[in-house]
Amino acid sequence: MQRNTLGLAHEFLRQNVRPGDLCVDATAGRGRDTALLCRLVGETGRVLAFDIQEDAVRQTRALLEAEGLRAEVYQDSHANMGRYLPPGSARAVVFNFGRLPGGDPQIFTTEKTSIPAIAAGLELLAPGGVMSLSIYYGGENGYSERDAVLSYLRTLDDRRFTVLTAEWANRRHEPPLPVFLWREV
After folding, report:
1. Which of 41, 66, 117, 130 is such that its CA lies 20 to 30 A from the CA of 144?
2. Is residue 161's pLDDT more than 90?
């Protein structure tokens, strides 16, 4: 396992997603999380992926095709994912907040859509479902999204959700923050 935010997120998903599950990659990016979810849910499962950037959708579809995997990939905001699935249907929802690595540095997620997207994802989670958030911050996108997301997560009802946030104590610069969430049964 890679000892970074992405490695932790992928290990969390491997521990919680099973064949036949329905999962959502709310921020498809280059498609790596989408591909992992496809491998975990297998032929009997279903994966939906969302991204607002045409380039991200294209790259995700190309990666899936190259690896012989299938998913429904939509060019739409993660805030709209509730339009595609009924409440309580997803085993896992995955987010990577920030910007597309190597993409346009002026296009990045913001709290304006990220908080409604998290709320939509929470509604999609089935009892016992999980959510993984990787919060990339600093640089062009600054700190406001990170701060707003962490503040929002603190307001969640602890009878319905368990939220674990982690912080790297000895990493330089602005390492992404891993956040893990469980919906109680």
Report:
1. 130
2. yes
